[in-house]
Known about the structure:
Helix content: 25-40%
Number of helices: 8
CATH class of the domain at 169-285: Alpha Beta
Number of strands: 15
Mean pLDDT: 90
Strand content: 25-35%
Shape: globular
Largest sheet: 7 strands, mixed
Structural class: alpha/beta
Amino acid sequence: MQVTTAFRQIRKIKDDRFEEENIHDYSLLLNLGVRDLQVAVLQQSRLLYLEDFIFPSVTSTEELRQALLILLEQHAFLKAGFWKDIGVAVKNQKFIQVPEPLFDADASAQYLRFNANVNLKAYEIHQHTLGRSQAVTVFAMPKIWKQVLAETYPNGQYRLFHHSSALIEGVMQLASSDSENPLYVFVDRFKFHILYARDGKLIYYNQFSIHNFQDYIKYIMLVMNSLHINQQMSKVVMWGYLGNNSPHYHEFYKYVQNVSFGSKPAHLQYGYVFDEIQDHQYFDLLSMSLL
C-alpha cells in the first residue's frame, strides 16, 4: 500500500487550548471502523481536538493494519504513551447486547454465535457493561487491530468497547429527559443504526447494512411498524454523516414528517472553533466519553 493512498484526512479541528506538552492531562478517544477512524481529545469535559480519517483503499484487516501503522507513524501525537486515559471503540457487526442479569462471562462466545460468525483464531472476544441500559455488550475484535494497539500503547493503558455501546449510552442519556420517546437514528458511513427507549429503558437497538437509499426507508418503516410507532405523528431524531440539506434528510421527510436533527452531547463543552461541525455529526465519537 502506498503512503499517499493509505489514509485521507477529511476533518481536523483544534482548540487554542490544546497543547501537546499537556497530553498527560488529556483523554484520547479513538473510534475505529473497517475503513475509517475518528479521533477526539478531551480535557475533563471540554473537547479540545477532533480529527476524522478514511481509508479509501482498504479491503482487508491486513490492509487496515498497514494503513493504521502509516497514519500513526506520521501523526504528531497519537503514538504518545502518556495520555491520562485512552478509550477505543470498535466499529463492526460482530457484537450482541445481553441483559446484565442474564450475562455469564463464560458464555461470551456462545452469545456471539446468535448474531455473528466469529473465527476465534482471528478475533478476540471482549465485553463491556452499560450502566444506563443494564446490558453487556459482547463483541469480537480482530487480533490484528489489537496488535496495532499493543504496539502503539505497550503499557496497555487503553479501554476497549464497541461502537454500539457509545450510541446506546448517548441515546439513554437523552431519553432520560425526553418524554416524547422518539425513535433515534444514526447514519454511519457504511451502516445504519436505529434505537428506541421508553420510560428510561432501552427497548430496541439494531444496525443494518445499507446497499441503496431505499434501504434507509425500508428499515425505518420496518422498525416503526414492529414497535407500533405512528410514522406521521411520532418524533424521529437523526444524527450522522449527512448535512442539513442532504437529499437523505429530504427523502426521510417524505415518509416521516416529524424528523429533526439531534444535538451534540450536552455533557461536553465546545469552543467556538467547533461551530463548523453541524450539531448532529460525531455523536458516536463524542458519546464515547460516557463510557
